[in-house]
Structures are given as structure tokens and as C-alpha cells.
Fold:
Amino acid sequence: MSKYSNYDVIRNPVVTEKSTMASEHGQVVFDVAIGATKTQIKEAVEALFSVKVKAVNTLVRKGKVKRFRQELGTRKDVKKAIVTLVDGQSIDISTGI
Structure:
């Protein structure tokens, strides 16, 4: 596996109703690179946001098969990371890095 930079690992934060409810419990949700490991995600979040990470849970959402005019196409797979922070730590995703 190739070495990712921190900005390659963390693509963007996920802002949904479910992720904002998770932020009340010290969790933040990010879209990450499909080949990134949990340790790479942990190191990237700690380096970019200057916080301590307790745990990282990942999931891969498979791309849907969609019809584009007369052709069948497939959307890309997306990997999400649910990052649990140490108590007292927080990340404000509404501001830039």
C-alpha cells in the first residue's frame, strides 16, 4: 500500500443528521480514502486537528448501480470512518483547517 499524506487520508467530514447526533457523544464522521487503514486514519486526525483519538471504526458503503440514459453505471464505493475522541476533546468541522 502506498503512503498517503494526511490530506489524502481524510477526504471530507460527513454532515448529516446522524453524524451530528454522534458528535454529542464525542464522535466525528469522515469520508476517507478507500485504501486507508485505521492507524493511518487515527494518525491523520491527530495530526490535522491536534486531538487524541480513542477509537476508529470504519465501514465501506458499496456503490449503487444506477442507470445513466440507456447505460448501466456504478457509483464509486465510499469508505467512512467514525472517529471516537477522548473525553473532553472536540473537533469543530464547520471551520476550515
Summary: The longest strand covers residues 53-61.
